[in-house]
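pinning this so it doesn't scroll away 📌
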Amino acid sequence: MRLSKILLVAAIALWLALAAFGNLTDYGSNWPFVRHVLAMDTIFPDAGIRYRAIHSPLLQRAAYALIVAAETLAAALCALGAWRLWRARRLPAAAFHRAKGLAVLGLTTGVLLWLGGFMAIGGEWFGMWMSTPWNGLESASRFVVVLLAALLYLGQREEDAEP
């Protein structure tokens, strides 16, 4: 079970790192997504929430930078968490459980980004659900489900092995 948890956190660290790396090295692929969601230019024409739109390129780029920073932070925390778990794999159950802290923090950072950032702020505040071409709710849901499942699994306590 311990090895399973370690490998799961390491795989998620890789996944999040690749998401951040992709945004850094192929900035232009997701930049239009962020710009259109914040500008709210593809939501229903008569939507009463259009006053929330952000048209400033500087603020839009700052939001994109914040997204990439959060992805990077979540990946780094998960990677460090996997390393701490690896180092604690042979320790008593209480010590292994205490070693979960960084992994839990990394997974939580990811949940906050995709649930709080993409689903709540992007989906509801900026009306992303109304946009056909720039709707990232399905992708965000996939991240949230995986990260929450990992949090639940990682949070289960292990028993010390019988001598």
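📌 and the second one:
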Amino acid sequence: MSHIAMPAHAAPQRPTLPGDQGVWMFICGELFMFGAFFIVYISDRSQAIELFNRSQLELDQFMGAFNTVLLVTSSWCVARAVAAVRAGHDNKAARLLLVGMLLGLGFLVVKYLEYSAKFAVGITMMTNEFYMFYFVFTMVHAAHVLGGCAILALLWRKTRAGRYRHDMTGLETGASYWHLVDLIWLVMFPLLYLLR
């Protein structure tokens, strides 16, 4: 059986991460930060299980689950938008990015309703240790969602203008950040709402 020699210039390239490689340093830093938060949360929870369990029962699991659906669906839309640009379908990609951004904003509306319900009955960050974690974690995450929505709005505008036809680095970078926001919530939701 004969082997066909590959020319030196045709050597296979090593796969690279999508988007700007510098953003992956930021993503790793964010994952490290939230990972440290979650370790502290689990450690403190183990010292006051009854308090944490009782407080968790006061959260609206439906709202938390609905927000999970919103973010997962949004992340799917953004991934499909990247694929659409690769296939040369800028208009479809722009529509998907717009839907992804609107779903992200929907997440923030739901979170606002959750906060309002808690504040209305006198529950704040100072109520107990569980609520301190709940408000800090979810508010930091909400700030990430808000920033991500601004990024998606920029990606939507540039995609409509055909800016990513020859270089998708900016689109892939923004999409990678949005998937980070989704991933963090996928860990945060069960920790805050479901863990017993």
